[in-house]
Amino acid sequence: MDRIKVEAPSASYDVVVGTGLLAQFEELAGPFLTSGRVAVVTDANVRDLHGAALERAVADAGREIAWHVVDPGEGAKSWQGLEALSDWLLEQGVTRGDHVVAFGGGVVGDLTGFAAAIHKRGCGFIQVPTTLLAHVDSSVGGKTAINSSAGKNMVGAFHQPALVIADSDCLATLPNRELRAGFAEVLKYGLLGDADFFDWCAANGAALLAGDAALRRDAVAHCVRAKASIVAADETERTGTRALLNLGHTFGHALEAATGFGDALLHGEAVALGMVLAVKYSARTGLMSENAAQHVDEAIGRAGLPTAISALDLDADGATLADLMRHDKKVVGDSIPLILLRGIGAAFMQHDIDLADVASFLDQQLQAH
């Protein structure tokens, strides 16, 4: 078991990474629970796969769970989903001193965290991530949000969890597609600021994805430590340091919007495509070599992730996708910043991007084979 401390300016908390942690839920989370009923938000798949284990751990401590179960997928992160969850928290009598448990992937964590942020002007919550993506990224750092007609995660709040319990055993039940989508976020940490870790991912990715539990724990712990350091330095993206974590996301969110935020393109798959686009655009503008960009493309492809937007069969051209990028949360006035690279492990934020050039670049990529 690893305990990694996140020292954000607004809150300090532990991220516990290890195996068999669901059975230790009471030992880890008990100090934050104030009553005999624990409000747990999850999706139907996680409830079926892991709900009994959590219920046993809670029952052994003389508590019971009140479940709020949402449908799997991005559709739960909506105004309607937020309203239903908020009403349920009020019906359950959750107080400002209580802690709601987010038990699932990034969708459940984002939705639950945002509901907790606004419930009676803010109550606590605990993250128990069950996907690789949530383990290494979305459960840590306090970003919470829902999607809207304007785009992904456009309505939300910074609200840090009180505790994160990352049980690697939960990853064993993930479908291969979701596991690979989560691995895109693992690769991201190497690509944005740690070339040695990117090489580690390229060398060990196949074994990690095939089920090597030790490699999975090592990857999760490494990524959490990296994110904890970034969050401590720039909790709310004011200095630009934390914005580097959005590598691949500006392109990726536009692709998600163009595909309707559905199963056609998972978030991690969109991030993978976004990272490929970021390195190719960086090479196009002379920031990094074509060989380095191709190396990233090939590493992402070897992980079984998509690398070509032409394969998506989008009903959109480059100008449409570039316009969707205007809805990125980092936009200030008419300036659209983009995370680009000077090399593997050397990401930076480029301001005043020429969207006409981006649109032309995307048109080329849409036609590439």
Automatic annotation (TrEMBL):
Subcellular location: Cytoplasm
UniProt EC number: 4.2.3.4
Domain 3-dehydroquinate synthase N-terminal: residue ranges: 69-180
Cofactor binding: number and manner: Binds 1 divalent metal cation per subunit. Can use either Co(2+) or Zn(2+).
Cofactor(s) the protein needs: Co(2+); Zn(2+); NAD(+)
EC supergroup of this enzyme: lyase
Domain 3-dehydroquinate synthase C-terminal: 182-331
One GO CC annotation: cytoplasm
Domain of life: Bacteria
UniProt GO molecular function: 3-dehydroquinate synthase activity; metal ion binding; nucleotide binding
Keyword Cytoplasm annotated: yes
Pfam assignment, any one: DHQ_synthase
GO biological process per UniProt: amino acid biosynthetic process; aromatic amino acid family biosynthetic process; chorismate biosynthetic process
Cross-referenced SUPFAM superfamilies: Dehydroquinate synthase-like (SSF56796)
Positions annotated to bind Zn(2+): E185, H249, H267
Residues engaged in binding NAD(+): G106, V107, V108, G109, D110, T130, T131, K143, K152, C170, L171, A172, T173
KW Zinc (keyword) present: yes
Chief localization: cytoplasm
Keywords: Amino-acid biosynthesis, Aromatic amino acid biosynthesis, Cobalt, Cytoplasm, Lyase, Metal-binding, NAD, Nucleotide-binding, Zinc
Annotated metabolic or biological route of this protein: Metabolic intermediate biosynthesis; chorismate biosynthesis; chorismate from D-erythrose 4-phosphate and phosphoenolpyruvate: step 2/7
Entries under InterPro entries matching the protein: Dehydroquinate_synthase, DHQ_synth_AroB, DHQ_synth_fam, DHQS/DOIS_N, DHQS_C
NCBIfam families assigned to the protein according to its UniProt record, in alphabetical order: aroB (TIGR01357)
Summary of the function given for this chain in its UniProt record: Catalyzes the conversion of 3-deoxy-D-arabino-heptulosonate 7-phosphate (DAHP) to dehydroquinate (DHQ).
Family named by the database record: Belongs to the sugar phosphate cyclases superfamily. Dehydroquinate synthase family.
Name the UniProt record assigns to this protein: 3-dehydroquinate synthase
